[in-house]
Design a protein that fits this description.
161 residues, mainly alpha, Arc Repressor Mutant, subunit A, 3-stranded antiparallel β-sheet, 6 helices, 3 strands, 8% strand, globular
Length: 161
């Protein structure tokens, strides 16, 4: 067995980078009253057409179970950051919709969050490195989380990364 296998190195580096980035990002998110999953939920809504997603699509995008996403949306709804809307064409479905307060919360945290991303991640790469890296991440995501963008595309509107 080769313990120096580059596959082990690749996954180890990815794990270390993720852990380090989250360690850097979480204090800023927490200071705005958002957990990691709260932030992921509201930023996905903010980046979706009409700033809303079907609950089932939000669950698929976040990797949460249906009950898990319901709990997160319930909490965000109590805080006034998200509201639910019924689906006019399917009474069984509902949407999570970002509220004005949710947008304001994001607008308050994003400047520092984007600065942190730039300082310890994207700013370390030149334009071609970043473009190549994003392409590689999308290729991997398509295999490990193919539902990560479900519901985020409107007819004729390309999906955001």
């Amino acid at each position: 067995m080769n313990f120096d296998d580059p596959r082990l190195t690749a996954i180890g580096l990815l794990t270390e980078v993720h852990s380090g980035l989250m360690g850097r990002f979480l204090p800023v998110l927490s200071s705005s009253g958002l957990s990691e999953i709260d932030f992921e939920t509201v930023i996905r809504l903010a980046r979706s057409p009409q700033q809303r997603l079907r609950m089932s699509d939000l669950a698929a995008q976040t990797g949460l179970s249906t009950s898990g996403v319901t709990r997160v949306v319930d909490r965000l709804e109590r805080e006034g950051l998200v509201r639910r809307e019924s689906c006019a064409s399917d009474r069984r479905a509902s949407y999570a919709v970002l509220t004005d307060a949710g947008r304001e919360r994001l607008e308050g945290v994003l400047p520092q969050h984007l600065q942190d991303i730039d300082d310890c991640f994207t700013g370390l790469l030149d334009e071609s490195e970043l473009e190549s890296f994003l392409g590689s991440l999308r290729k991997i995501r398509e295999v490990v989380r193919p539902c990560a963008t479900v519901g985020a595309v409107e007819a004729g509107v390309p999906a955001r990364p």
